[in-house]
Amino acid sequence: MGERAAGHPGRRPDPADLAVVNEIAAGRGPVPRIDPVTGTATWRRPVTAGQLTVAFARDVVGTFTEPAISRIRMCAAGNCYLIYLDTSRPGNRRWCSMQRCGNRSKVRGHRDRGDKS
Ligand SMILES: [Zn+2]
């Protein structure tokens, strides 16, 4: 695991950018509801673009504050620059995607050890 893998980039956002996010997050968002047929969470329709923007800004607030911000990681693969939110229970996810970088890393590890399987 290279030095890029540990922790999130750690840069604090510009206060002016945070003010924009906070202002948008204070707006009227989509109205949540329970679908009577499926029992799943949904939004009352129609949902406007402005409401979606508010929902996105609120997600930004939730993602870029504790505890989520401590789980923002850079992919451990040396040739990948993706940043992801580690939602694994133990919080030790190493790659942006197991199907992509995780498998490539495992194949490379087998090859480096001379495994023939
Ligand atoms: Zn990756």
TrEMBL record:
Q: Which residues cross the membrane?
A: none
Please give the organism: Phytohabitans suffuscus
Origin: domain of life:
Bacteria
Q: Which SUPFAM superfamilies match?
A: Jann2411-like (SSF160904)
Name by which UniProt lists this protein? Zinc finger CGNR domain-containing protein
Q: Which residues form a coiled coil?
A: none
Q: Where is the Zinc finger CGNR domain?
A: 71-113
